[in-house]
UniProtKB/TrEMBL annotation:
PANTHER family: HLYD FAMILY SECRETION PROTEIN, MULTIDRUG RESISTANCE PROTEIN MDTA
UniProt-listed InterPro entries: Beta-barrel_RND_2 (IPR058792), MdtA-like_BSH (IPR058625), MdtA-like_HH (IPR058624), RND_pump_MFP (IPR006143), YknX-like_C (IPR058637)
Protein name (database record): Efflux RND transporter periplasmic adaptor subunit
Source species, domain of life: Bacteria
Transmembrane feature ranges: 30-50
Domain Multidrug resistance protein MdtA-like barrel-sandwich hybrid positions: 86-232
Coiled coil: 134-192
Length: 414
């Protein structure tokens, strides 16, 4: 019986060992999903921070349209200065003390405008004396005229009486001699009156010399005297006497003065077109023209001076400015139509895969490699006839690591 009971216990089914596992909790699945999302986000942030390509810092330059007449190539480059053909340091004609100065630097004056006045005490006194002398001479002249009229009448009356034998001939001769003497004195008085009048005119000039006027229209570039100082047209040798009131420059007479080496002067011809660039405004191309080649050379510097006329009048152009000029070839008649292509800095063009290319900066900050067709040299720029259009921005001096599609950013000025 016991053996049978043990056999029955072995045949009983153990439900705990064969039971199905309990269902998993919903919260456990949610945590797994959040963990996966977090890992993806961390991977994205890591790529953005460490795996993404950093933009290259570059400088850009605009693509400009070629203006009419600028497609000629440069045959010679030189540097010079802006000078004024009409410039004067205005001074008084006499030595005197300054009473008032009516100019300031940068002020525009017209021809004949009063710039300063001197103390006119001495000149006024001399004029008063000359005026008095003239009045005295005129009074003496009037008295002699009256005497001459009386002597003429007396001589005429005695002449009639002599004819009637009522007076002696000697009385008539005495009267005529008196008349002729008065006539001679009258002529002397008339000359003295004229001399007094001329003396008064000279005294008026002396008074007027105390007024300093502008000899021509222009702009005051220097104010040299102050009220109370002594000015003189000649240097007194000391440091207390001024030789001028101020300096005036006629801005309409500005031109460029360039010194060209003797070895290259043969490339320059009168009426030759010139492109000038002021050091202060490097992006401004000023049309100009050769006026003349000065027919003498500087032995010490082995240079020849060339005068260049500016075809543009602008307030930004002032004397003594540094300027770079490019002497251009004369444009051929066939090039009279509108020039083709655009101009870019020569440093923006590089060779990649045996091709001349430029890197155009797109709106999204990426550099696009563009093959270009290069034309003639334009000073520091180059003509591009195909591949670029005016208004685009190109990378200037592209670095070797720059590639098509690279992210770029404008380099900030230090």
């Amino acid at each position: 019986m016991n053996a049978s009971a043990e056999l029955l216990k072995e045949l009983r089914i153990d439900r705990q060992k064969g039971a199905a596992p309990p269902p998993s909790s919903p919260r456990r699945g949610l945590w797994i999903t959040l963990a996966v999302v977090a890992l993806v986000l961390l991977a994205g942030v890591g790529w953005f921070a460490f795996g993404r390509e950093k933009p290259l810092e570059v400088t850009t330059a605009p693509v400009l349209a070629i203006q009419q007449g600028t497609a000629s190539s440069s045959v010679l480059d030189a540097s010079g200065y802006v000078v004024a053909r009409r410039m004067a340091t205005v001074s008084a004609k006499i030595t005197g003390k300054v009473r008032e100065v009516m100019i300031e630097e940068g002020m525009r004056v017209e021809a004949g405008q009063i710039m300063a006045t001197l103390d006119p005490i001495d000149a006024d006194a001399q004029r008063s004396l000359s005026a008095s002398q003239l009045e005295a001479a005129r009074a003496q002249l009037a008295g002699l005229k009256a005497q001459v009229a009386q002597a003429d009448a007396e001589a005429a009356r005695l002449q009639q009486l002599v004819g009637q034998q009522l007076v002696s001939r000697s009385q008539y001769d005495q009267a005529t001699a008196q008349r002729d003497s008065l006539r001679a004195q009258l002529k002397t008085a008339e000359r003295n009156t004229q001399v007094a009048a001329d003396s008064l005119a000279i005294a008026d000039l002396g008074v007027d010399n105390n007024i300093v006027r502008a000899p021509f229209s222009g702009v005051v570039t220097a104010k040299a005297a102050q009220p109370g100082e002594i000015v003189s047209p000649l240097s007194a040798g000391g440091g207390f006497t001024r030789t001028g009131i101020g300096t005036i420059v006629d801005m309409e007479s500005l031109e460029i003065e360039v010194e060209v080496g003797e070895a290259y002067i043969g490339r320059v011809q009168p009426k030759m077109p010139v492109e000038a660039t002021l050091n202060a405004y490097p992006e401004w191309k000023i049309p100009a023209e050769v006026i003349a080649i000065i027919p003498t050379a500087d032995r010490g510097k082995a240079t020849v001076k060339v005068r260049v006329a500016l075809k543009v009048k602008d307030p930004r152009i002032v004397p003594e400015m540094g300027v770079r000029v490019s002497f251009l070839e004369a444009a051929a008649p066939a090039q009279a139509e509108a020039p083709k292509g655009v101009r870019v800095p020569a440093s923006a063009l590089v060779e990649r895969d045996q091709k001349t290319v430029a890197f155009v900066v797109s709106d999204d900050g990426h550099a696009q490699q563009v093959p270009v067709t290069v034309g003639v040299a334009l000073n520091n720029d180059r003509q591009v006839t195909a591949g670029l259009s005016a208004g685009q921005q190109v990378v200037n001096n592209p670095p070797p690591e720059l590639r098509d599609g690279s992210a770029v950013v404008e380099k900030q000025a230090p």
